[in-house]
Design goal:
10 helices, alpha+beta, 11 strands, three-stranded antiparallel beta sheet
Length: about 250
């Protein structure tokens, strides 16, 4: 993939009309204002490499963008998220969300040759600023990739003391489990824990009469022989009813 600034195209002899026609004809594609590539849908890493040419040198990729690079498997953001220290200059770029932060970023981690916040920082930032229902899903995803450990997440949460939303991140971290396989399973586990029930065991195997694993449930309570399955039809519109049903089964 090639990428060029508008000024570079003009310096190479292209007129404004030729650049406009190249975009119209699908030969050029805007990655950001004043930045063009020759690919209609470049892979994320290639798009970010192109963007680096117009980003400040101190900017690192963060939040959903870093999570996608780390392979958390969370829903992507339509914007590119970058982080810079508070007080450093950053010109607004359409399609780029700038987060100016007071908490030191630390040494960037290179992922596919791109500077990112450390994975623990990425996970805790998302857990404390995102929807409450998704808090545990973020922690599960970070552990599932192997980029983070329970201890590293605990230490990172402590660094965020006093920042907005840190309480919800702090409550989720002890219950993180890499065995959870998708966003919806993590959300259901969160609903049960948030409702005051014991944390269920993810991916619970049920043995047959000879003791061999036969069925695998999304989660459950082994000692009480209670299984819990995610039902995509319900979307958990009534979390209280879900908790009440499981509480009744555990009696």
């Amino acid at each position: 993939m090639g990428s060029w600034r508008y000024s570079e195209l003009r310096a190479d002899g292209f007129s404004a009309n030729q650049i406009r026609d190249g975009v119209r004809d699908g030969l050029l594609h805007r990655v950001a204002p004043g930045l063009y590539t020759d690919l209609a849908s470049p892979p994320l890493a290639e798009k970010l490499r192109a963007l680096r040419s117009i980003l400040p040198t101190h900017a690192v990729f963060a939040f959903q963008t870093a999570a996608e690079l780390y392979g958390f498997g969370l829903p992507p953001s339509p914007e590119v998220h970058v982080m810079t220290p508070e007080g450093t200059p950053f010109a607004d770029i359409r399609g780029v969300k700038s987060h100016r932060v007071v908490l030191p970023i630390g040494d960037p981690v290179e992922v596919a040759g791109l500077p990112c916040v450390p994975p623990e920082r990425c996970a805790v930032d998302l857990a404390r600023t995102g929807p409450r229902i998704d808090t545990l899903a973020v922690i599960d995803a970070a552990l599932r990739t192997g980029c983070c450990t329970p201890d590293s997440l605990v230490a990172e949460v402590a660094r965020h003391d006093g920042l907005r939303g840190v309480r919800q991140a702090r409550l989720a971290v002890p219950h993180g489990d890499p065995r959870s396989e998708c966003l919806q399973e993590s959300q259901l586990r969160f609903i049960l824990i948030d409702g005051g029930l014991p944390p269920p065991e993810p991916q619970l195997w049920v043995p047959d009469e000879w003791g061999q694993p036969r069925y695998r449930l999304d989660m459950g309570y082994r000692e009480r022989k209670v299984g819990v399955e995610y039902d995509g039809r319900s979307q958990y519109h009534d979390a209280a009813a879900v908790v009440a049903t499981i509480r009744q089964a555990l009696r």
